[in-house]
Amino acid sequence: MKNIFIALLALLSVSAVAQSTFKVPKYEKFQLKNGLTIYLMEQHEVPLINVSAVFDAGSINDGDRAGMSMVTSDALLFGTEKYTKPQIEEAIDFVGARLQPFTAKDMAGITASFAVKDQEKLLDIIQQVLVHPVFDKTEFDKYRQRTVVELAQQKESPRAVIGHYYNAFLFGNFPYAIPGDGTKPTVEKMTSDDAMAFYKSNYTTGKGAIAVVGDFKTADMKKKMTDLFGGWKTAGARMVKRVAPNLEFEKSRVLLVDKPDARETTFLIGGKGIDYNSADYVPVMVVNTILGGRFTSWLNDALRVNSGLTYGANSRFTRMKYAGTFAISTFTKNSTTVPAVDMALNVLDSLHKTGLNDEILSSAKAYVKASFPPTYESAGALARLLTDMYVYNFDESFINTFQSKVDGLTTEQSKKIIADYFPKDKLQFVMIGKASEIRDQVKKYGDLTEKQIKADGY
Hints:
CATH class of the largest domain: Alpha Beta
Number of helices: 18
CATH topology of the largest domain: Cytochrome Bc1 Complex, Chain A, domain 1
Number of domains: 2
Distance between the termini: 42 Å
Keywords: Signal
Mean pLDDT: 94
Shape: globular
Helix content: 40-55%
Strand content: 15-25%
Strand order of the largest sheet: 1-2-6-3-5-4
Signal peptide: 1-18
Structural class: alpha+beta
Organism: Dyadobacter luticola
């Protein structure tokens, strides 16, 4: 009941949702002497506090040990110098709080949510988890065994793994190709000492930030955060120079992943997208809403509503720090693989040939503007926004000008956006299905490479 109560409070927070033009609420940003960046934002609508902590510890740093970032972030909660894993779990459950680790390509860390009255205990636990994790060997070994089993089962679901194949196919040797949750061979070799070593190298104050959003006074919280984290000494921040990967492909290619017992084909079609800080993100988002970003999109109408070839089709841009991808995504019966792929390609082609009229564009703009403020309707979402600002190096103007940029998009401008960011040739195809039934048919889409889904890795 306490968890439900806190969840309901979170949904009621942040009055900015009701505003016609969303602006990032006022916040304070400062840096501790050890280099750790702190964001504080007061939100007094409900008696909750939300925390987001991020570090340069994402899967981009995994190297040849895919999954190391995820395993390390999960293992932060396996005990500290002051609390055992059961004690952490009991304390959190007792007050209906939430404390969760996470990892992504460019970052890893934790998020938390708790009632104001429980802040002393929860902030102490958070400090212990971040500053004094012990990576208990017994807990780690049990976790590793469970994870290896889950990874072995994961490939039974094409939709759960096709993104890994797609990233590996597009990014090649760039570390965004690394599957964030690892592979069975890499994870089964990991030890608690490996997690501790990854933690010491990547959870550094010089490349870390903590955002606190909720019902508190900034001066009071500033003192608490300084007392809790001001004495944290870590290794120096690593300076890794990365060059954005080249996603300009010379030809169309097809990766066919054979799943002999498959009764349907799951596929992605696409190519180069945009990085996180692309100046054209907003117009790209509006145009993609029309193509495949909502239920009434052209792709879903064509493949689901009008033809019944699938239960759903969409398109999306996945943005990361150094690069991004574009993909059309759906699934269909083995026997309708080619009709579904051809129809998806026809819809994409029509976007280029026909373009958008004022009525279609106005509908998409209204949809995007209505959807935008609720993205930041909770204090937890605002905390994540602040740490995203740190990781991706943007400021509040990116958010504050969002709706005006939506309004400013014209049909003439949309033509350039379509031409620049929605690939129409040299497409990359990843298909998971029964190769014996579809191999000869899908060769027409590009140079064919084949893998077995039961083979290790992606």
